[in-house]
Amino acid sequence: MIDLHAHTHYSDGACSPEELFELARREGLDAFAVTDHDTLAGYDAMRTPEEPRQPEVIRGIEVTCNLHGRPAHLLGYFLQGEPGQAFRHWLELRHEQRRDRNRRLAHRLQSLGACVELEEVEALGRSMTGRPHFARVLMDKGYVDSYEEAFERYIGEDALAYVPHEAPSLDEGIARVNEAGGVSSLAHPVRLGPAFDGRVLQRLVDAGLRALEVFHSDHSLEQSSRYLEMARRHRLAVTGGSDFHGPIKPRVRLGGQRVGNWVLDELRERFG
Ligand code: AMP
Ligand code: ZN
Ligand code: FE
Ligand code: FE
Question: Which of 11, 64, 93, 245 has the highest count of CB atoms within 10 angstroms of its CB?
Fold first, then answer.
């Protein structure tokens, strides 16, 4: 069993890379991928005792892109050993855009009477500060009672303080991941809503997309089988994972999607 979608506290997960590794070992996984949002720092920081490692750790990333003005997440796997300085440089530029957005988000919260300072949010964020960290500060300071309420009342896409960050198009994300020697996979397609159909997918395939995340904690069994069929029809490879974050998403367990090893074998066969 494998899990190709998990976050560490280098983005918005709760576990350190070591804790994640230990958890994966206890769950009996054969392999798992570290797919932090917009950063490789969690994977880079991973130190495990012996080589070869068991479970195997795969270098991944989850890049925030946009599709028709809405956030769309793109997974990238097997980014090469030194995955191109160009790719890392690109990530740094993205961090600057994010910091700019976060500054404006903090100001907007302050103008709504929620006293949130950029510095205290960034203190939680390590290499990638995002809205989940804002949600935690809003909770800690008693402005909201839950993580969900923070999004509903303040920072969700339809809420008052929401500020989008300038994310690259999915086409650009796909090109960057592919150029860095990675396998690009469209994450949790269900979150793209009804606008996601065969035509949109074909356009992404033409842009170089290599896989579709078929198995994910937000997908029902019916949705997963529909996405599997779509992947096959468009000759895409398949990926899958839990999208584990730790206690902030308590219903999602590492390894909870029970993704078979065939998924990884097939990725290796197709993309070396
Ligand atoms: P950011 O990239 O900083 O805009 O933050 C995006 C992240 O916030 C996503 O990856 C989700 O983990 C989280 N998020 C976005 N919308 C919601 C929501 N409505 N409820 C809970 N978490 C959300
Ligand atoms: Zn996340
Ligand atoms: Fe995601
Ligand atoms: Fe994720």
Answer: 11
